[in-house]
Each structure stands twice: as C-alpha cells, then as structure tokens.
Design brief:
Largest sheet: none
Structural class: mainly alpha
Pfam families: HD_4 (PF13328)
Number of helices: 10
Protein name: Guanosine polyphosphate pyrophosphohydrolase
Order of helices and strands: HHHHHHHHHH
Radius of gyration: 15 Å
Distance between the termini: 41 Å
CATH superfamily: Hypothetical protein af1432
Number of strands: 0
InterPro entries: MESH1 (IPR052194)
GO molecular function, one term: guanosine-3',5'-bis(diphosphate) 3'-diphosphatase activity
Helix content: 55-70%
Keywords: Hydrolase
CATH architecture: Orthogonal Bundle
C-alpha cells in the first residue's frame, strides 16, 4: 500500500475517533485532526530528509499518537486495524494515567526509547507542533514548564532524528 493510501486510511480513522469526542485543539475551535495532520506533516518532511526511515510506520503513529489517550479506542483495536508495530508505537506515546503526573512524561520517553527511531521522531514532531504560541489562559509558570519539558524531550531523544532535533531546538529558542 502506498504512503498516500496509508495516510488516507489512518487520517480518516483518527479524525472520526477524535471528532466523536468533540475534541478540538486546546484554546481554539479547530478540530483536533489539524494537530494530528501537522504532526504527520513534520514526519513526512523528516522522512524525505532521513536515511533508513520507515515513513509508513511513522506517519501512521503520528496520526494516531493521541487516540489511546484521548478516545475510547483500545490497543487491540489499533493492533487489529494497523498492526502491532503501529499499536506499540502509539502505546509508548500514551501517558500512563496510573502514574503520578510528574512521572508520566519520563515513563513515556523510556518506553519510546525501546522502540524504532520512527516512534522517537513522532514524539519530536508532536512537541514541535505543540510549540505554537501558548493558549492565552496558560500561566507564565505553565509556559516555562512546557518549554522545560521540550528541552527534556530533545535531550532524551537525542540521536532519534537529526532533522527533527534541529527543528525542535529552533522551536524551543523561539518559544515564549
């Protein structure tokens, strides 16, 4: 199956799952699929600039990366529809709600680092996409914490994807 066909199948699934939850990008009226397609765009550009990069795996994980965390979709449903490598990637990117809030990101990063570099790339692309101007209701403290988290992600996933690491580094410098 071509990457275009994979993209179409995956974005339709993800769009429906997030739309069923009436999910929008926080602080906006934009449908959540805009965020997912922006993460996938970062992945597609990284794929063109990276050797030995499985763009098909990465674009599926990018489009689905929040589906376990934000919708009633199950791991089994993902595995049956998209295969184990995709489902495992999405699961690694999903924060474990059973952990204390301050432990969730490092737990996810540790699980991500056990998987192919394409999953690392999705985490980098997700944070790049999220480093837009922060929502107006965020406090200065929350903005600083979010920037610090981005720096931790960059450090922990160093060596995952040179192109995306440079993009994230630039976004961190620009983030206020």
């Amino acid at each position: 199956m071509s990457i275009q066909d994979i993209y179409q199948k995956t974005i339709k699934f993800a769009a429906q799952k997030h739309t069923d939850q009436n999910q929008t990008i926080p602080g906006t009226d934009l449908p959540y699929i805009v965020h997912l397609s922006n993460v996938a765009m970062e992945i597609l550009l990284a794929s063109e600039r990276s050797e030995n990069f499985d763009g098909k795996l990465a674009v599926q994980v990018a489009l689905l990366h929040d589906v376990l965390e934000d919708t009633p979709t199950t791991y089994e449903e993902l595995e049956n529809k998209f295969g184990q490598p995709v489902a495992k990637g999405v699961l690694a990117l999903t924060k474990n709600a059973d952990l204390e809030k301050d432990q969730r990101m490092m737990d996810s990063l540790n699980r991500i680092k056990k998987l192919p570099k394409e999953v690392w790339a999705v985490k980098l692309a997700d944070r790049i996409t999220n480093l837009q101007p922060p929502p107006a209701h965020w406090s200065e403290e929350k903005i600083k914490k979010y920037k610090l988290e981005a720096e931790i992600i960059l450090k922990e996933l160093h060596g995952g994807n040179e192109y995306l690491e440079k993009r994230l580094e630039q976004k961190i410098k620009e983030y206020n």
